[in-house]
Amino acid sequence: MSLYLSGDYKMCGIVGYVGKGEAQGFLISGLKRLEYRGYDSAGIVTIADDNTATLIRAEGKIANLEKKLAANKREDKIGIGHTRWATHGEPSERNAHPHQAGKIYLVHNGIIENYKELKEHLLKVHEFKSETDSEVLAALINSFYEDGKYPLVNAVVQALKLVKGTYGIAVVSTLNPEEIVVARSGSPLVIGVGHGETLIASDASALVGHTKRAIYLNDGEVAVVTKNNIAVKTLNAEPVSAKVEEIETNLSAIQKGGYEHFMLKEIMEQPESLTETLRGRVNLEEGTVHLGGPGLSEQELRKVKHLIIVGCGTAYHAGLLASYYIEQFTPEITVETVIASEYRYRSAYIPEDSVALIVSQSGETADTLACLREIKKQGVKTIGIVNAIGSTIAREVDGGTYVHVGPEISVASTKAFTSQAIAMVMFGLTIAQAKGVKPGVLRPYIEEIAKMPNEIAKVLKETNKPMKKIADKYAKYEHAIYLGRDIAYPTVMEGALKLKEVAYVDANAYAFGELKHGPLALIDDRFFELALLPEGPLYDKAVSNVQEVLARGGHIVAITNMPKLDLKVESVVKITTDLKIFAPILMNLVMQLFAYYVTAAKGYNVDQPRNLAKSVTVE
Ligand code: AGP
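# 2-deoxy-2-amino glucitol-6-phosphate complex -> structure
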């Protein structure tokens, strides 16, 4: 059963040009506009009227490709290009797009899930040069194209009918430098309607300044575009009367998907980003989860007695949160979550049968990397929970799971947190499965995980506007206390970090039970208090702690999924959800929105807060 899939999930950027002008100009400027979507390698191919193709690719930022192009200027009038956010195969020139198979060249944005099976059948007819799923699609199309025996569009359609996964593609052939074939399912694709030229792009940001008119291709549609014509059909060859629309011309708005800041865009795209994290890893029928990446056998998983989770900042909080869940359903295991900058200098003893989870969005954080190397020296298996494909940590761990949330541009990590926490819970579930824990014990966790993308969408829709109003009310505060019990405790640690790093509010998280041991002394009008009150066995205890704060004149914002909150507090945010176990993760979304709107209300630079960097590559 496919999980939640909606809207355009952004990863790589693709472009295309056919027209009276020279293609290289648009291809490179278009790729620069789309660089925010992925920037670990890039390439273009143009085809001359004499059918010769010029393929130029480079690892790293578009600037590297631009340097190469400066030495290879071409007047060719047709071409396609790509900027990559790697999913399969590390960032390198040979894994960069366009990929060639015979006379055809392809650029692809998305994930071909069944690429391994397809590749098996193509080994006899294609010599693979990369590790990518996209080259498999190029080879598959070519196997039907048979060097031009059949129209390119027919070969593309036949191939796509065998594909499982998502794609936005553009395909050209040296045999016909007049047309580009494009298609989409799950990844965005826009066709710019010009005068004597037609432009292709993953989103309209690449078209701004070239045309104001565009056709937004829908899922299941394929189009043959030439300089003066655009013919759109469904994969079943039904003609489609494509609607030409006026495109949004404000560049940053487009790159931010219409949101004012990347932080809000990344908060709001979590239904999609988590879907990518879960893709192909949750089997609801069997009630099991499967993570291929860690590469631990059933027997190795069964033997695990101790888990060390290592990370910094938000990655550390995601680990701490996951540890609470893993302890709940995995017998005979101890879980230790450590701050990397501390752990690297501690002389901690690592017991037998340990595995280390190395958590990092960027995969480049110096302290986390140092811990990885220290732990490896002790012969302990290291498993990466990473977002940036091909990053140093991803390359040095023994195995790992990519969270696939796409580029996270805003310094404040939001979508990566949710996916890192769930990826680690799923890793814990694979250990529990191997240890023979009854499916009845694990199924509630797996069912809730499968439901989570939908539940996230509901909560974001329900709370986005109310959180703006509440944030405006509390933006005047310079001090805050965040409170939670059990799983809500690491959750408020993350919530407080967000308010600290983007709104510069001195926000500190405490376990409810710790209040009477000191923090309660802080309560006065300089502070507001944010309390998480999830439905569950500890709800009443948390409520009595809130009453202790109220008794000292606390200004409380309570976030709960209880149908009715029997507490008189200043502000209440109710979330409506079917989730019980993972309700705190949904409450964290509310705290992300709160931090965003407080920062916006204060007029601070939301995406690039002072004194911070997205990836801390120094100690
Ligand atoms: C989170 O919003 C911060 N950007 C920061 O705490 C971050 O989580 C930390 O630096 C770890 O980064 P990493 O996940 O890339 O290793």
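# post-check
The two ends are 45 Å apart (CA to CA).
Residues 312-315, 360-362, 365, 368, 411-413, 501, 615-616 surround 2-deoxy-2-amino glucitol-6-phosphate (CB under 6 Å).
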